[in-house]
Amino acid sequence: MTTFVTTSFYLGVLTGTIFYLYLIKQVRNKRKSRKRSPGSKVLFFPDKQIACKSHFSDESGCTSFPCHYSHSPTSLSFLFQLLCSARKSIDICVYIISCHDLIDILIKLNAMGVAIRLITDGEYEDVNNSWIWKLRSQGIIVRTDKTQYLMHHKFVIIDNKIVCSGSFNWTSDAITVNHEHLTIIRDYAVVTKYSSEFAKLWNYFKYQSIPSVTNTPENSPSRRIRSKRR
Q1: Which residue of 2, 131, 190, 205 is most buried, as measured by CB atoms within 10 A?
Q2: CB distance 52 to 67 below 8 Å
Q3: What digits encode the pLDDT tens for the residues 125-180?
Q4: Main-chain phi, psi angles of 157, to 5 degrees
């Protein structure tokens, strides 16, 4: 009887130890998988070379020969591909937008049926290189902050699944000369918070965003930028 009890005791200890080691292994595997998973990525600017938009965003690729833009991966090329991965919607909330390549991608995606919404600061609405008039002329709804304060966010939500957020304005300087960053986030809880913020601002700026006559290709002279509080 004593031998049976002793044997059962050691078997119980051995089984418990094996199960404990199994749990530890599972936890370690989860941690490793999290490190390997593409849950987040950070893009840093400036890029050494400007990425070729056609090479990274067009199905036919680049048809220019020779091409004076980079066909090697850059931070901008990753952003091109990320935007082009959208299937349903892109919500953009950015202080300044003037990069022609990024604007062209938005117009292309809008024509393909991807719902595009843009919130930006009204300070640059009627300045030539803001290109807000071009987006509106293509049916993209743009809402602007016309208050005395800044709409200084810089984030984009793709298909309500991915967020790109950081210091990056959608300008040529941000790509080529400024020190900027964009963090790519695929965490559902974080994306939900950004979506809520976008929805709040989208409603808030609803009645401030009536397009002016200057938002057309023929009538977009530079106007004096009103002073905002900083």
Answers
A1: 131
A2: yes
A3: 766 556 888 899 999 999 999 899 999 999 999 999 999 999 999 999 999 999 99
A4: -115, 125
**pLDDT of 133:** 83
Amino acid code (one letter) for 47: D
Could you give the residue numbers annotated as active site? 152, 154, 159
Give whole-number Cα distances, 133 to 43, 83, 122, 140, in Å: 29, 21, 12, 10
d(CA 93, CA 201): 9
Starting at the edge strand found earlier in the chain, the sheet holding 115-121 runs 40-45, 180-185, 162-166, 154-158, 89-94, 115-121, 141-145
Residues with Cβ < 8 Å from 182, sequence gap 6 or more?
A: 42, 43, 45, 75, 79, 164, 165, 166, 167, 168
Nearest to 111 by CA among 78, 131, 137: 137
Give me the amino acid identity at 138: Q
pLDDT of residue 37 exceeding 80, the answer is no
**Phi, psi dihedrals of residue 10, rounded to the nearest 5°:** -70, -35
Give the helix/strand (H/E) hosting 209: none
3-state SS string for 83-114: HHCCCCEEEEEECCECCHHHHHHHHHHHHCCC
Q: How is 148-188 classified by DSSP, letter by letter?
A: SS----EEEEETTTEEEEES--BSHHHHHTS-EEEEEE--H
